[in-house]
Specification:
By secondary structure, the protein is an alpha+beta fold. Helix content is 31%, strand content 14%. It folds into two domains: 1-44, no CATH class; 64-159, Alpha-Beta Plaits, CATH 3.30.70. The strands form two sheets. It has a three-stranded antiparallel sheet. Strands 1-4 form a two-stranded antiparallel sheet. Strand 2 (90-96) and strand 3 (104-112) form a beta hairpin. The chain binds iron/sulfur cluster (2 copies).
């Protein structure tokens, strides 16, 4: 008898929780539907990949290397991003730049995204504002790890 009562109580408790969430979600979604600009719009299912979730402006997404007006990468191969990277996933080789005012440029610039933790330290460290993580590209899944290795050309191409 006591067992049955406990079972019934738990059953009603579960029913109450489900109903509560259902009506709260219906209420917020209805408010949104009739034009109220509320932050909480209840739980919704996003129909990914047809529908994409809006990404916050400060979200750190795929890296890119910015270019100067003449199209050359802004990077001066100072190695600061490589030094600060906690995942050690940046590799740079420097060479002399023909422009004496610039002095150095990268002959090789690689980011291995399979190791990157998207901390953004490299962006913060860059004195030339050459590296950014503002592409809003977050779908980075690949079947092959090699494809997650981004070289200079690939990183520059994202900027264009
Ligand atoms: S985001 Fe962080 S882990 Fe990724 S490359 Fe930059 S410094 Fe390294
Ligand atoms: S910190 Fe900036 S300028 Fe220095 S190597 Fe990295 S991307 Fe290039």
């Amino acid at each position: 008898m006591i067992k049955s009562l406990v079972f019934l109580l738990e059953f009603l408790k579960g029913l109450w929780i489900t109903a509560k969430h259902f009506w709260i979600n219906i209420f917020f979604n209805f408010l949104k539907l009739i034009g109220f600009n509320i932050r909480d719009r209840g739980s919704v299912t996003i129909q990914y990949p047809e529908e994409k979730k809006e990404i916050a402006r400060r979200h750190r997404s795929l890296h890119r290397i910015l270019t100067r007006e003449d199209g050359s990468p802004r990077c001066v191969a100072c190695m600061l991003c490589m030094t600060v990277c906690p995942s050690e996933c940046i590799y740079i080789e420097a060479e002399e730049d023909p422009n004496p005012e610039i002095q150095k440029r990268p002959s090789k610039f690689i980011i291995d995204l399979s190791r990157c933790c998207f901390c953004g330290f490299c962006v913060e460290a860059c004195p030339e504002d050459a590296l950014r993580m503002d592409t809003n590209i977050v779908e980075l899944g690949e079947y092959n790890r090699e494809k997650l290795i981004y070289d200079l050309n690939r990183l520059v191409r994202i900027s264009k």
